[in-house]
Write a structure and sequence with these properties.
Helices cover about 45% and strands about 15% of the residues. The protein is an alpha/beta fold and about 400 residues long. Strand 1, helix 1 and strand 2 form a beta-alpha-beta unit.
């Protein structure tokens, strides 16, 4: 059942709503004014909020506006004894899920809560579906191929995934490190939780700590509102730290503390926040060499590499190219809305001759180019012509 927060300065109303909701087996929490309610709501864990409008310290509309800036997906049902059409419209414009007049009708309350919970489920399903679509566009979390190298990785994943052991995935750019991380998540007990990815190389050094740990309002010039970091967003799931070798030493120290204590502190804050996160890290660098150069912490390396998994380059598993090519042809044809194309055996052999410095990601891009530029089937001549344009 759901966890619901009731915010109202009238104790009788809170008690009445509590009785209704607890009878439906929901867990209920209370706050007697808008300020206290906002503090509780921001801590998270609630599925629905029921809030009065006329309250001391912080009225309902101000509360709603501040909460939506923090978490726009949390459904808020506004309840008021001073209801007017204008008030209801304003509440809905500010992000309220529904508006109910006092005294609240039991059936109306239950229907509103049920609808809000259904909306929350749809939001989660949509997010999951969007992640699946994105994975499919990138080749999915499937590891396509039958080489011995891939079989070894699959066996490792099957053994490692059910545990909470940290994993360090190594390999070249585009080799499929993210796919390994996703498979570990999907085969783990955290599969229903979030999979949150952070590309450490793509975030400026001065922003990485805010990205990972969040920040409090006013922590720096552009921090106009409190913001959760990736560690908090990944709570109960998996945090994938891609290109960990590019993380600053200052951020490495904080990540080490988070792994040691399962606690983080937002930038500009002083409160410890407990997190339950499994960390999978990946890098295309030799971290031992980075340690020797003083650019990576040895203690963090040992924390991250409990289970090391190396993803070989595509040039080390050329026997997987036929299956990968067929897989990407199907994906690209579906994306482009064109009839599936065939690829000749000679074309496959030409693909196997290429160096593939960009690994599987590069192969996918080449296949997309060939699908768009070729005729009804992809031939060896077209591979020679289009696989390495300008060469």
């Amino acid at each position: 059942m759901a966890k619901i927060l009731i915010i109202d300065d009238e104790k009788a109303i809170r008690n009445a709503l509590r009785d209704i909701l607890e009878h439906e087996k929901h867990t209920v929490d209370e706050a007697e004014d808008g300020a206290a309610g906002l503090e509780k709501a921001k801590k998270g864990g609630y599925d629905v909020v029921l809030s009065d409008i006329k309250m001391p310290k912080l009225d309902g509309l101000e509360f709603l506006q501040k909460l939506m800036a923090h978490n726009e997906e949390l459904p808020v049902i506004m309840i008021s004894g001073h209801g007017t059409i204008d008030t209801a419209v304003e509440a809905l414009k500010k992000g309220a899920f529904d508006f109910i007049e006092k005294p609240p009708n039991i059936s109306r309350i239950l229907v509103a809560v049920r609808n809000a919970l259904d909306r929350g489920s749809l939001v989660q399903e949509t997010r999951t579906l969007r992640q699946k679509v994105q994975k499919e566009k990138a080749g999915g979390s499937r590891m396509v191929g039958e080489s011995k190298a891939l079989e070894h990785i699959r066996e490792m994943i099957a053994k490692v995934a059910p545990s909470d052991a940290r994993v360090l995935v190594t390999g070249g750019n585009g080799a499929g490190k993210e796919g390994v991380a996703r498979m570990i998540h999907e085969k783990s007990g955290r599969a229903t939780g979030p999979f949150v990815e952070v590309n450490c190389a793509a975030i400026p050094g001065e922003l990485i700590e805010s990205e990972l740990f969040g920040h409090e309002k006013g922590a720096f010039t552009s921090a106009v509102a409190q913001r959760k970091g990736k560690f908090e967003l990944a709570d109960g799931g998996t945090l994938f730290l891609d290109e960990i070798g590019d993380m600053s030493l200052a951020a490495q120290a904080k990540v080490l503390r988070a792994l040691q204590e399962n606690r983080i502190t937002r930038v500009g804050g002083d409160k410890d926040i407990k997190v339950n996160v499994r960390v999978v890290a990946a890098t295309n660098k030799d971290l031992r060499k980075e340690i020797e150069k003083g650019q990576f912490r040895e203690d963090l390396y040992h924390r991250l590499s409990v289970i090391p998994i190396h993803v070989p380059s595509l040039s080390e598993r050329l026997e997987d190219i036929p299956l990968l090519a067929e897989h990407f042809i199907q994906l690209v044809c579906a994306e482009q809305g064109i009839a599936p194309k065939k690829i000749t055996d000679k074309a496959i052999k030409e693909l196997q001759k290429l160096p593939w410095t960009g690994n599987v990601r590069e192969l996918r891009n080449v296949i997309e180019r060939l699908v768009i530029l070729s005729g009804k089937e992809i031939t060896d001549e077209e591979v020679k012509l289009y696989a390495r344009p300008g060469k």
